[in-house]
Specification:
Elements lengths: L1 H5 L5 E4 L12 E4 L17 E4 L11 H21 L4 E5 L9 H17 L3 E5 L2 E3 L10 H7 L3 H9 L2 E3 H13 L5 E5 H5 L2
Parallel strand pairs: 1-2, 3-4, 4-5, 5-8, 6-7
Helix pairs in contact: 2-3
């Protein structure tokens, strides 16, 4: 995360063996398997904040089994490693909820949030719906529909909760979460993400 690096933070980033070169310049690589906390747990003891970003790429209803076998397993591994290291703040990239679609995806994220809450760790849940960025520009065509939905009282709250955010907004929201640790549980939802 370039913002955090520019602000003087030291970032340790988990990468699979052979993928370390894909990390942004300035990150300290931790080689391990996101599904196996034993592969990296020892290396997070010096960290203050743990940011969990692992998830299936391009989620869709067809990938529902992967939300349990990858997303949730990786989250459980992260929580185990973070708890053992007495991490002071856990940041979790979740999803806007409730939502009228992508029910299996939302449910796996809700289950993950419940697991984090159960640890008693201070945590921030960042809840975007869809992030506009490179390779994800088709969704700009939905902006007029969101504006229309925002005009009607019955659909306004849903349109705001599952609205579109930009990649720069997401990066600033995540940086804010790291630089301003929560006490207890904090939720940064779509309207809050858009303010960054």
């Amino acid at each position: 995360m370039p913002i955090l690096l520019r602000n003087g933070h030291e970032i340790h980033a988990l990468a699979r063996a052979g993928s370390e070169s894909k990390l942004p310049a300035g990150c300290v690589p931790i080689t391990g398997n996101a599904l196996d906390p034993e592969s990296y747990a020892e290396k997070v003891h010096t960290c203050h904040t743990f940011v969990h970003l692992v998830g299936v790429a391009h989620p869709s209803p067809a990938k529902a089994p992967l939300f349990q076998s990858i997303d949730l397993v990786a989250l459980k591994a992260s929580v185990k490693a973070a708890s053992a290291a007495n991490i002071q703040h856990f940041v979790y990239l979740s999803v806007a909820q409730p939502a009228p679609i992508m029910k299996a995806y939302v449910e796996s994220r809700r289950e993950a949030e419940a697991l984090i809450r159960g640890t008693g760790m201070n945590a921030t849940f960042v809840r975007p719906w869809y992030v506009l960025g490179p390779g994800h520009r088709w969704a700009y065509a939905l902006i007029p529909l969101y504006r229309l939905a925002g005009l009607f009282p019955r659909s306004r709250e849903t349109a705001q909760r599952i609205g579109l955010v930009t990649l720069p907004q997401m990066m600033r929201a995540l940086a804010h979460a790291v630089e301003n640790p929560a006490t207890g549980i904090r939720i940064i939802d779509v309207p809050a993400i858009r303010k960054f």
